[in-house]
C-alpha cells in the first residue's frame, strides 16, 4: 500500500496491514489452503463417487432399487457420525498432520474395495466403513485452517478451501465419466474402473500429508521470524480474549443453545447439498424419458459439472464481500432463502437447459453460504470446545447427509417423482434462513444486555 493510500486509510479509521501480516496470510493462502483443498477435493469425490456409479451400471449390476441406492448413499453417514466428535478431539490432541494423514489413507483403502463389491449387502457394509474411515476429516480440516489465521481472515481462507467442493464436480464429474468409459480395463466394468481411479489418490496424498503439513505456525519453516511473531501474537491475543470471556467447555458445548441452533442451520444446508450431489446425475439420466433427449456418459458428466463452475465463482466473490464487510447475517440467510425457492422450482422447468439453469442458482446459493457459516463457531469458542462444537455441528450435518440420501430415494420410490423430495429440501432451507435471522437477533440482544449490565 502506498503512503498516500495508507494515510487515507488511517484517516478513515481503517487498519493498514503490516508487511509481515500481508506476507504471512499470502503464504498460508498459497502453502496450506491449496493442499488442504486438494485433500477435500479427493474426500468429496470419494464419498459421492456412488452417485456416478449408480446410473452408469452399478444399479443394474447389483440390482438396486431407487430406495436401496438412496440407503447405500446415506448409510455412509451413520459410520461417519459415530466417530465424528471423538475423531476431532483426537486431532486436537495428536495434531492435524498425523491425524488427517491417517484418515486419508484409511478411507483410500476402504474406497478401493468398492472396485470388487458384488452385492447390495457388501455395498452397505463398505459405505458404512467408508463413513467410519472418513470421520473427522472435514471438521478437522476446518479447525486446522481456523487455527492458522486470525478471525478477520477466516472467511477468506475457508472460502478458498471450500472452492474444492464445487470443483470436485466441475473436474470430478467429467473425470468419473471418462473413467467409466474405460470399460474393460483390467477386466472391470466401467463403474468399477471409476472406483479404482478415484481411490488411489487418497492413499498417495495421505502419505504426502504426513510430511507436508505443519501443526503450528511456530514450526513452519516457510514463515520468516517476523511473520511468525505477528501470526503467533495475533492468535494468542484472540485466544486470551476468548479465555477472559465466558465460553462453553467441551462438556457444556452439548448443552449450549447457540451451538444447537447452528447445528439445525447446517442440517438444512447439508440436506440440500447431498440431495443435489447424490441425485443430480440420476435426474440428468432421466432427461431422456422426461424430455426425449439422449446423452452419452461423458456428456452426462459434463452436464453434471455445469452448475458447479458458476457456484465456485459466485462463492469466491460472495465470501470476498463477507471478508471485506465482516460476515453478516444476510451473507448466510439470503443464499438459504434463494435455495428454498430454486430447489422445488427446478422440477417445473420445461427443458433440460432451463432445469440446469435453476439448479445452477441452487448450487451457487449453497456454496455461497457454507464457508461463511463456518466462521460462526470460532467467533465464540476456542481450543477443545471449538473442536467439539465444530465436530458436533458437522455430525448433525451428516445426519442430514444420511437423511437426504435415504429420504429422497424412499420418497421418490413411493411417489414416482422428485417433486415431494425437493419440496422437503426447500422447506429445510427455508428453516435454515429463518433460524439464521433469529440467531443473529438473539446474539444482538445478548450483547445489548451485556453492555447495559456493564454500565
From TrEMBL:
Top-level taxon: Bacteria
The entry's keywords: Cell membrane, Membrane, Transmembrane, Transmembrane helix, Transport
Membrane-spanning segments: 32-50, 62-83, 99-118, 124-145, 157-180, 192-213, 259-281, 301-318, 330-348, 354-374, 386-407, 419-439
Main subcellular localisation: membrane
Species, as recorded: Symbiopectobacterium purcellii
Ranges in a coiled coil: none
Positions of the Major facilitator superfamily (MFS) profile domain: 32-444
Cellular localization per UniProt: Membrane
PROSITE patterns documented for this protein: MFS
Protein name from the UniProt record: MFS transporter
InterPro entries found in the cross-reference section: MFS, MFS_dom, MFS_trans_sf
Amino acid at each position: 500500500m502506498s503512503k498516500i493510500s495508507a494515510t487515507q486509510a488511517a484517516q478513515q479509521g481503517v487498519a493498514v496491514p503490516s508487511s509481515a501480516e500481508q506476507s504471512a496470510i499470502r503464504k498460508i493462502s498459497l502453502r496450506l489452503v491449496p493442499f488442504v483443498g486438494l485433500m477435500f477435493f479427493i474426500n468429496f469425490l470419494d464419498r459421492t463417487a456412488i452417485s456416478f456409479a449408480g446410473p452408469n451400471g452399478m444399479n443394474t449390476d447389483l440390482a438396486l432399487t431407487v430406495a436401496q441406492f438412496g440407503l447405500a448413499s446415506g448409510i455412509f453417514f451413520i459410520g461417519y457420525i459415530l466417530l465424528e466428535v471423538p475423531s476431532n478431539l483426537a486431532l486436537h490432541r495428536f495434531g492435524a498432520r498425523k491425524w488427517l494423514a491417517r484418515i486419508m489413507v484409511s478411507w483410500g483403502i476402504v474406497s478401493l474395495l468398492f472396485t470388487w463389491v458384488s452385492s447390495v449387502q457388501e455395498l452397505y457394509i463398505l459405505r458404512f466403513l467408508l463413513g467410519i474411515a472418513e470421520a473427522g476429516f472435514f471438521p478437522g480440516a476446518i479447525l486446522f485452517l481456523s487455527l492458522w489465521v486470525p478471525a478477520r481472515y477466516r472467511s477468506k481462507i475457508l472460502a478458498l478451501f471450500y472452492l474444492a467442493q464445487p470443483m470436485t464436480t466441475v473436474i470430478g464429474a467429467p473425470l468419473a465419466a471418462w473413467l467409466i468409459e474405460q470399460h474393460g480395463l483390467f477386466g472391470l466394468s466401467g463403474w468399477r474402473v471409476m472406483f479404482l481411479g478415484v481411490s488411489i489418490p487418497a492413499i498417495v496424498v495421505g502419505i504426502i500429508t504426513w510430511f507436508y503439513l505443519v501443526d503450528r505456525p511456530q514450526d513452519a519453516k516457510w514463515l520468516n521470524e517476523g511473520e511468525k511473531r505477528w501470526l503467533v501474537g495475533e492468535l494468542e491475543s484472540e485466544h486470551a480474549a476468548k479465555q477472559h470471556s465466558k465460553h462453553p467447555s467441551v462438556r457444556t458445548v452439548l448443552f449450549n443453545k447457540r451451538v444447537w441452533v447452528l447445528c439445525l442451520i447446517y442440517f438444512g444446508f447439508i440436506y440440500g447439498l447431498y440431495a443435489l450431489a447424490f441425485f443430480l446425475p440420476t435426474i440428468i439420466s432421466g432427461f431422456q424419458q422426461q424430455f426425449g433427449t439422449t446423452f452419452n456418459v461423458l456428456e452426462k458428466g459434463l452436464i453434471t459439472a455445469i452448475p458447479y463452475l458458476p457456484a465456485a465463482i459466485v462463492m469466491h466473490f460472495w465470501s470476498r464481500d463477507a471478508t471485506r464487510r465482516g460476515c453478516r447475517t444476510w451473507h448466510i440467510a439470503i443464499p438459504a432463502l434463494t435455495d428454498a425457492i430454486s430447489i422445488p422450482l427446478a422440477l417445473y422447468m420445461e427443458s433440460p437447459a432451463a432445469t440446469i439453469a435453476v439448479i445452477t442458482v441452487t448450487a451457487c446459493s449453497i456454496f455461497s453460504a457454507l464457508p461463511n457459516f463456518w466462521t460462526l463457531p470460532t467467533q465464540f469458542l476456542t481450543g477443545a470446545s471449538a473442536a467439539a462444537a465444530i465436530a458436533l455441528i458437522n455430525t448433525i450435518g451428516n445426519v442430514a447427509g444420511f437423511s437426504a440420501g435415504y429420504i429422497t430415494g424412499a420418497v421418490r420410490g413411493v411417489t414416482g417423482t422428485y417433486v415431494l423430495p425437493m419440496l422437503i429440501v426447500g422447506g429445510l432451507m427455508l428453516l435454515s434462513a429463518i433460524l439464521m435471522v433469529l440467531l443473529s437477533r438473539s446474539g444482538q440482544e445478548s450483547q445489548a444486555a451485556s453492555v447495559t449490565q456493564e454500565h
